[in-house]
Amino acid sequence: MITLGIDSGTQSTKCIALDLGSGKIVASASQAYGMIERLPPGHLEQEPQEWLNAVDHTVRACIAQLGKRKDEVKAIGVSGQQHGFVPLDKKNKVIRPAKLWCDTSTTEQCAQFEAEFGGAEEIIKLAGNCMLPGYTAPKILWLKQNEPKNFKALKTVLLPHDYINFYLTGEKCMEFGDASGTGLLDIRTRQWCKPLVEFVDPGLEECLPVPGSSRRAIGLLSDSLREDWGLAKSPVVSAGGGDNMMGAIGTGNVEPGVVTVSLGTSGTVYAFSPEPVVDPEGEVAAFCDSTDRWLPLVCTMNVTVATEQVRRLFNWSHEEMDRHVSATPAGAGGLFFLPYLNGERTPNLPLGKGVLHGLTPETMAPGPIARAVMEGATLGLAYGLNRFRQLGIEPTEIRLTGGGSQSAAWRQLCADIFGVPTVGLQSAEGAALGAALQAAYAFAAAEGKPVRFRDLAKKHVKLDESTRCKPDDDKKETYARLLAKQSDLTKRLHAAGYL
């Protein structure tokens, strides 16, 4: 049996074919795309048709690679970028381009939510999360206030992976995990929070699919796509989920103790929880996961964004970047970097800017700058990990994924800063693998032969033990001091109006 896992992200879509018998990825393909150019600052949008074109291209490529085995494809799962707003009209046509998770044009709408409900603390009491610019809810309110004609045409609100599921099956659904990232779901009851929904518009709930279990199959691949793709029978399509929810499954983060850290364009830290984890300060997102449990998560917006800027600045290969970082002592000789190049989500600084502090004739050099930038991005994630600990989540192992996890220097830096052993994975396709495993789960349930996510992960999620790193106790004090410095500098500069 083969399942397809589709990961539709901000920069590209990937598809993998997972052989459930051997545990091997037997086909893969990807297609890149970009965002709409020349939009005002803070506006980041994409045409949803780009995602569909990429899904079609990558699935066809995988099926072609499978050859005679193509009819072993029994199930499909979709992972999608979270929070994006896909508005459909009464004919199920896209009304306007999708506003993405990284769009920060909705700070005014977030302020309106807080003014209406008495601050972030009261919104957290209502739904479990505060209202952030990246979430879907302020995007919907932005549409109402800035494009009233388009809002009047709105009949269905979908998230990116929901829209792809609609393309695959004709079914308009939303599951608990991705729905929790809209900002409109009460994550404790897994139902829409009526006061928040009605504040956007009294008629909005009619546009929102009823949220359902992430464990279910939502339907079969449409006959038209089955014929186009040359399949004899239509595979089951699972509920799918957001990229972080699928990444949790794909990294084996399906039981307490394991924490996943993604070193991608943005950075995420997330953990499995059998119960809701609500942060009264709103820094940890209280999401549902894609196994019908919960996924406390911290997201930062500047990880490989920052390190790649440095690498390009000095015209280095990745290997050269690693050598310079490794050759520079912990603490970068006193050079310190606040990594808020694209604003920031944790802490909530949508208009934030990056800062290099501690420049001297000695530190104004390639090695210290490279190390300081990598340390600054990682300390931002460590801030979130420490917040996890304060909420009762104690990590015993951190599984690294994303492009940054390919760096040996960065893997060791993570272990030293986090104070927890880190390890990479044999497959770099965490979200796509998670989608393929969720598809396998949904197929088994539909066949009346249920399996456990824990057992699927144990068989198919393979650690790369050659990448395992242990914390260097000699650096513990240095990084504890730098983490405190990052928090202090951020607060002082923000209070003075400089961040």
Could you characterize what this model shows?
The strands form 7 sheets. Strands 1, 2, 3, 5, 13, 14 and 15 form a 7-stranded mixed beta sheet that branches. The chain has a domain at 2-243: Nucleotidyltransferase, domain 5 (2-Layer Sandwich). 38% of the residues lie in helices and 20% in strands. By secondary structure, the chain is an alpha/beta fold. Helix 11 (304-313) runs antiparallel to helix 13 (366-390) and helix 12 packs across helix 13 (366-390). It starts with a strand and ends with a helix. The chain contains 17 helices and 24 strands. The protein is globular, with a radius of gyration of 22 Å. A hairpin with a 3-residue loop joins strand 16 (258-263) and strand 17 (267-271).
What composes the largest sheet?
Answer: 7 strands, mixed
**What fraction of residues sit in β-strands?**
15-25%
CATH class of the domain at 2-243: Alpha Beta
* Multimeric status of the protein: single chain
Determine the number of helices (DSSP H or I, runs of at least 4 residues).
17
Q: Which outline best applies?
A: globular
Q: Which percent bin holds the helix content? A: 25-40%
Please give the radius of gyration in angstroms. Answer: 22 Å
Annotated CATH homologous superfamily of the domain at 2-243: ATPase, nucleotide binding domain
List how many beta strands DSSP finds: 24
Q: How far apart are the termini?
A: 53 Å
Question: pLDDT under 50 segments (min length 5)?
Answer: none
Structural category:
alpha/beta
CATH level-two architecture of the domain at 2-243: 2-Layer Sandwich
